[in-house]
């Protein structure tokens, strides 16, 4: 038994991640401190491995040029580290190591010292009966504590295990070679050293943590909803509003599977009022719980099959859509599946789910959308596949109170009475090409004497869309449409080129601001020409901008009673179709079969 | 009284049937030499001409060859169960090989106690070998880093490290176990049903039996040799067809804790 191990640690060792190296060094420092009782920086380096550790196998006493000598006291190691070192040393043969690794022999390095310093971290095996993994491999791959001994060795995660002797098994394998030489394909000598997988640990091959998955699920859910992110988006709000009905109306147990976002990445979601209903459900962030291989449709499908909720709603989650597309035939026998498709986008740009997945998912799931135009398109395009049907649930809005309405109408009247005012327009959306940013830029260019205030997250920068004009002001991101100050605006402009049912328009309707809207998505199902000013999207941004210009000119000439009639009607139409009561009624109709 | 009926299932194995029959013969001879009364049979499900020819030429030592037309592995096994006369049944796939101690050791393990006879026994090791490794060959005792061949180690379903939940995500036991005929009669294999999306007959059977309280055990020092195929394997086909395992109505994971 050796008592002390002398380590030479390369100062610049690129084979070890810097974080690990730092930890490694700190551990060394701590070990040395404990051993010497002095500041390691002031200690002379031990002069030879042989002095400190005469019992090391294969020791040659050689030293490396350009490395800093370090040592640690075996006695300072904890029990697990000692057990590990003892096991390794008892299975280590220096001569074999040097024969296997000619680079170590050529450098005239001590074999055991080399393994401790480098081989361990490089994954150099030295005995087929002892498997040692370090670093990330130890943390993630095949390291179930049931089958592996795990420890932190000098700050680095290590997992190791002894294989049972396979002599009898290998003899039986070799006994079959006269019948089938392919058995020998990997090499007769290395058959005992081939990778080994434990059956209960099989999911590790896919980097899936089975134990963590089922431990994380508190109870069998009635409804599972899969959504990629928890963020301030229309699809996320839609999902949350449906969850709200399941929880509050039907008292159902809901599991939310966030399929593409870790808990850390989603931090702060609970401050988004639109997602409040999700707080009543159990939320699992798949990247955190399933393991690094979380993005596997087959594992996801098997998981869903194991828990078999009554209802599965797939809301924009690519992982879940792939699982339904590939395994929906089986899944749909035990659960009713709904996949949301809001839009087919503009010529398929950006690959919206509505263009990619309906034909693969509709044979097994109800296509759920928030607007009739999309429902019609899906039925028209994929009718024979729509065995489960196409359902529409218009999105829910928070209806504005009369006080807000009267205050805004009063402000509008004052504004529209002043014919000499400088007109000021409001634009709220993500600032990107598909939202009509270029149309807006051209419109602002045409109406250069008027002001345009932009709100919303920017994809890229304003300049790339031509929005860096002197009469355009970027105002940041809107926290809440319902509390925005709107009295200084003549109207709300919506230039989007493709939509489902845009929430921002519905919310603006409740603020009683005149709206000039591109005629997209399901807007015409809610609003009429008497309640808003629609603009058709033309071939070119220039043509569309001219049409918007015409509409703004018309709106600017409205007298106060005309404006009041316009906004009151828009608000009423939105409430009629999107009030909480209307939404709950729609949800009840669509999901009635499950919950009668 | 026949102790064991060993049944190999063929369909379109072609050349792979040659080593399989040789391996099966060694396996059977070894068991018979140890004093066991072994019945050796083949079930051929919609075989192709090549497989028919090979089994006719190289399988003339078999005690029975039954031709069926199911196009379904589970139903073919069920046919084998009906025809078998042995107390214990062992199934083989027609493109694999088996360590020669399999039947002897499995019988010994399964007849040690009354309780042992009620279990389903699996080989301790599965050696998955890949012909592609001829191009990733090693001439020393360390495999090529990209070698595709590997060992798979079965663990008993009542062992400390066994998490029953894991069976919902992966099939933890191979198809070719060793069990009483009456157990097979009680739990027949389920038909693959592509119309409903359920199949994977061995996985379904493993889930069903484990959730019915039947232990799956491991026969020490035994091995089955399983051929890894790039095309034509049942696993690949199941994936292409989008098949999930049948689950008994009462089979759910244990939530909120790790089950052992």
Task: Set out the fold topology.
The complex is a heterodimer of chains A (596) and B (260).
Chain A: E1 4-10, H1 18-36, H2 49-52, E2 67-73, H3 79-91, H4 94-100, H5 102-106, H6 111-122, E3 130-134, H7 136-140, E4 149-153, E5 156-162, H8 167-175, E6 196-198, H9 210-216, E7 223-227, H10 234-249, E8 254-258, E9 282-285, H11 286-289, H12 297-307, E10 311-314, H13 318-331, E11 336-340, H14 353-356, H15 358-361, E12 366-369, H16 372-382, E13 390-392, H17 402-417, E14 424-428, H18 437-446, E15 451-455, E16 472-474, E17 491-494, H19 503-509, E18 515-518, H20 523-526, E19 533-535, H21 541-556, H22 560-578, H23 580-590, H24 592-595
Parallel strand pairs in A: 7-8, 7-10, 8-9, 10-11, 11-12, 12-13, 14-15, 14-17, 15-16, 17-18, 18-19
Antiparallel strand pairs in A: 1-2, 3-5, 4-5
Chain B: E1 4-10, H1 17-33, E2 38-45, H2 49-58, E3 64-68, H3 73-83, E4 88-93, E5 97-98, H4 102-110, H5 114-117, E6 120-130, E7 150-153, E8 178-180, H6 181-186, E9 198-199, H7 201-211, E10 216-228, H8 234-240, E11 244-245
Parallel strand pairs in B: 1-2, 1-4, 2-3, 6-10, 9-11
Antiparallel strand pairs in B: 4-8, 5-10, 6-7
Helix pairs in contact in B: 1-2
Major β-sheet strand ordering of chain B: 3-2-1-4-8
Q: Biggest sheet of chain B, in brief?
A: 5 strands, mixed
CATH class categorisation of the largest domain in chain A: Alpha Beta
Distance between the termini of chain B: 38 Å
User: What is the CATH superfamily label of the largest domain in chain A?
Assistant: Glycogen Phosphorylase B
Beta fraction of chain B: 15-25%
Task: Give the overall shape of chain B.
Answer: globular
Mean pLDDT of chain A: 84
Poorly predicted spans of chain B? none
Low-confidence stretches of chain A: 1-70
Largest interface pair:
A-B, 63 and 73 residues
Q: Give the domain tally of chain A.
A: 4
């Amino acid at each position: 038994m050796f008592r002390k191990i002398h380590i030479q640690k390369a100062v610049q060792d690129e084979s070890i991640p810097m974080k690990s190296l730092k930890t490694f060094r700190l551990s060394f420092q701590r070990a040395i401190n404990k051993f010497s009782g002095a500041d390691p920086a002031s200690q002379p380096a031990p002069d030879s491995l042989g002095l400190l550790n005469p019992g090391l196998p294969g020791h040659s006493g050689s030293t490396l040029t350009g490395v800093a000598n370090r040592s640690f006291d075996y006695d300072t190691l904890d029990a697990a580290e000692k057990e590990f070192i003892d096991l390794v040393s008892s299975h280590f043969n220096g001569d074999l190591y040097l024969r296997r690794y000619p680079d170590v022999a050529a450098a005239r390095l001590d074999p055991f010292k080399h393994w401790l310093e480098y081989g361990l971290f490089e994954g150099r095996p030295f005995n087929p009966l002892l498997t040692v993994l370090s670093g990330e491999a130890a943390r993630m791959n095949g390291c179930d504590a049931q089958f592996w001994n795990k420890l932190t060795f000098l700050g680095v995660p290590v997992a190791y295990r002894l294989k049972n002797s396979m002599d009898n098994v290998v003899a039986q394998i070799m006994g079959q070679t006269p019948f089938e030489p392919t058995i020998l394909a990997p090499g007769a000598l290395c058959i005992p050293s081939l990778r080994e997988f434990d059956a209960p640990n099989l999911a590790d091959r896919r980097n899936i943590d089975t134990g963590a998955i089922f431990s994380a699920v508190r109870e069998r859910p009635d409804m599972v909803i899969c959504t990629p992110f928890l963020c301030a988006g229309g699809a996320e709000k839609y999902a949350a509003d449906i969850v709200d009905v399941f929880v509050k109306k039907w008292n159902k147990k809901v599991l939310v599977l966030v399929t593409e976002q870790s808990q850390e990445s989603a931090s702060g979601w609970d401050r988004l009022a639109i997602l409040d209903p999700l707080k009543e459900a159990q939320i699992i962030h798949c990247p955190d719980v399933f393991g690094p291989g979380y993005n596997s449709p087959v594992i996801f499908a098997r998981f869903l099959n194991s828990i078999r909720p009554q209802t599965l709603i797939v809301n924009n989650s690519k992982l879940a859509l792939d699982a339904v597309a590939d395994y929906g035939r089986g899944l749909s026998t035990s659960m009713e599946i709904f996949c949301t498709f809001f839009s087919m986008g503009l010529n398929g740009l950006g690959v919206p789910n509505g263009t990619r997945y309906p034909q693969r998912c509709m044979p097994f799931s109800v296509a759920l959308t928030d607007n009739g135009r999309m429902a019609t398109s899906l039925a028209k395009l994929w009718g024979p596949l729509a065995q489960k049907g196409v359902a529409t649930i218009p999105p829910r809005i928070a209806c504005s109170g009369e006080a807000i309405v009267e205050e805004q109408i009063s402000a509008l009247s004052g504004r529209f009475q002043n014919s000499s005012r400088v007109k000021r327009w409001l634009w709220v959306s993500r600032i990107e090409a598909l939202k009509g940013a270029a149309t807006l830029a051209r419109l602002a260019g045409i109406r250069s004497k008027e002001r345009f205030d932009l709100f919303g997250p920017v994809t890229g920068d304003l300049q790339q869309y031509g929005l860096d004009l002197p009469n355009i002001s970027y105002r940041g991101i809107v926290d809440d449409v319902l509390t925005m100050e709107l009295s200084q605006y003549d109207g709300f402009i919506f230039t989007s080129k493709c939509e489902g049912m845009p929430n921002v328009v519905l919310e603006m309707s409740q603020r009683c601001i005149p709206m000039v809207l591109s005629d997209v998505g399901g807007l015409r199902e809610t609003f009429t020409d008497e309640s808003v000013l629609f603009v058709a999207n033309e071939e070119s941004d220039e043509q569309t901008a001219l049409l918007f210009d015409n509409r703004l000119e018309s709106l600017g000439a409205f007298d106060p009673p005309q404006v009041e009639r316009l906004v009151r009607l828009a608000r009423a139409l939105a409430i009629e179709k999107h009030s909480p009561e209307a939404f709950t009624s729609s949800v009840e109709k669509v999901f009635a079969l499950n919950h009668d | 009284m026949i102790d064991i009926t060993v049944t190999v299932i063929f369909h379109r194995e072609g050349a792979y049937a040659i080593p399989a029959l040789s391996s099966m013969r060694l396996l059977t001879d070894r068991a018979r030499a140890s004093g066991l009364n072994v019945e050796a049979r083949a079930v051929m499900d919609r075989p192709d001409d090549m497989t028919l020819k090979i089994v006719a030429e190289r399988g003339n030592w078999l005690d029975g060859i039954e031709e069926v037309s199911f196009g379904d592995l589970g139903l073919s096994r069920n046919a084998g169960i009906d025809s078998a006369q042995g107390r214990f049944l062992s199934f083989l796939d027609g493109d694999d090989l088996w360590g020669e101690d399999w039947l002897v050791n499995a019988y010994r393990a399964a007849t040690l106690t009354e309780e042992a006879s009620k279990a389903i026994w699996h080989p301790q090791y599965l050696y998955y070998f890949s012909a592609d490794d001829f191009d990733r060959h090693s001439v020393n005792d360390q495999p090529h880093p990209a070698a595709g061949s590997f060992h798979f180690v079965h663990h008993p379903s009542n062992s400390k490290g066994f998490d029953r939940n894991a069976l919902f995500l992966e099939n933890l036991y191979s198809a070719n176990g060793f069990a009483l005929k009456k157990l097979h009669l009680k739990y027949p294999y389920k038909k693959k049903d592509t119309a409903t999306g359920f199949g994977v007959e061995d996985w379904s059977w493993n889930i069903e039996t484990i959730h019915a309280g039947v232990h799956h055990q491991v026969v020490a020092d035994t091995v089955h040799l399983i051929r890894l195929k790039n095309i034509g394997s049942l696993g690949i086909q199941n994936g292409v067809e989008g098949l999930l395992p049948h689950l008994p109505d009462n089979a759910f994971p244990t939530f909120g804790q790790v089950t052992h």
